[in-house]
């Protein structure tokens, strides 16, 4: 499965044909066109900000999901046995990666981590296929600010007996998340740093 991009009006449309470098550029444009806003915002971390990124406007977009699935799949270590993330932001991301992995003949299950245990049935924190103890899982996130959300997912997965060594985010706001992960021995990567999105946003406004 390969992906490429064409333009439809002012919005980047990702279809099935081109390389990862082109895909990344078009995904950047989607973030600028759909998700990035400037103004006065209160973040979930409690901090105020002059900009806001609603990642779900891209991760739930069909073309955004396709690009995200391919790009993040290419970033996963070869021994990855599952991808996981904290609901709600990571839900469409882990699903996109899992679906694309099947097309790429590298099937990787997706796990969704609840913020609170399910109140009935198994009362589980983790939804998805049961994996063997010691399975290697990579945590995915849409936007990292302080890093707390993904760290909750890491802790739940480790409590379940899985091995988690890495967090991958679509966007790093550069507000302490990377430092938090480093302090607890986690590798961290992001597809985009906030500065790259802001620079491209300015270019597209001209």
Automatic annotation (TrEMBL):
Gene transcribed to yield this protein: pyrE
Molecular function per GO: magnesium ion binding; orotate phosphoribosyltransferase activity
Domain of life per record: Bacteria
Protein known as: Orotate phosphoribosyltransferase
Pfam families the UniProt entry points to: Pribosyltran
UniProt keyword annotations, A-Z: Glycosyltransferase, Magnesium, Pyrimidine biosynthesis, Transferase
Alphabetized PANTHER family for the sequence: OROTATE PHOSPHORIBOSYLTRANSFERASE, URIDINE 5'-MONOPHOSPHATE SYNTHASE
Family: Belongs to the purine/pyrimidine phosphoribosyltransferase family. PyrE subfamily.
InterPro entries: OPRT (IPR023031), Or_phspho_trans_dom (IPR004467), PRTase-like (IPR029057), PRTase_dom (IPR000836)
Known function: Catalyzes the transfer of a ribosyl phosphate group from 5-phosphoribose 1-diphosphate to orotate, leading to the formation of orotidine monophosphate (OMP).
